[in-house]
Amino acid sequence: MGDFFFGITEWLRETWLLDAAFWMQETAISKVLVENFWGVPFAQVAHIISIAVAFGATLMLTLRVNGKVATNLTIQQVEARYVRWIWWTLVAIVISGLLMLFAEPVRNMINSIFWAKMLALLAMVIVSLMFQRSVLAQANAAGPGWTASGGTKAISWIVIILWCLTMAGGRWIAYSPV
User: Fold this and answer.
1) Neighbours of 96 (CB within 10 A)
2) Can you give the pTM of this predicted structure?
3) Which of 72, 104, 134, 164 is in the most buried spot, having the most CB atoms within 10 Å?
4) Is the dihedral angle over the CA atoms 79, 82, 84, 87 positive or is it negative?
5) What digits encode the pLDDT tens for the residues 6-32?
6) Residue 178 placed within a domain
7) Is residue 168 part of a domain?
8) What distance lies between CA 112 and its chain's CA centroid?
């Protein structure tokens, strides 16, 4: 599998992404992040805390859909409590992620693991959005006694798996040679 990702990285070196990375490296935001000792750690801490909050909120929704927690609350109440945390912290994840990208653009832009993580993130966002809308629509149609079907429960766990793949990809980036 390492050869697969290494081959993709080699291919990425020959695309416009390398030129974009060199351009990003010369921007003012990149220079501020690199020249100040606090820049990258600040972005990383913001990124990690945001991921923890979003994943925790997603996990709570998944556990409720599966009837494991907060069974005394309706899905609507659980959604009202947690979904806004998921999406607002996703904004913070994107902003802090962009800061980290500008701090080390060459390491990331031609890193096959970075792009695998981005694909997992995109899939997670799309599946999460569809899942949350579907769950709320089903719960609203069925009323307070709504119970998730087996398919809905399975999709909730797929969302968790996509989150885990995204997080693992984020850690793996640091150890992937470019």
Assistant:
1) 21
2) 0.87
3) 104
4) negative
5) 888 888 888 999 899 999 999 999 999
6) no
7) yes
8) 17
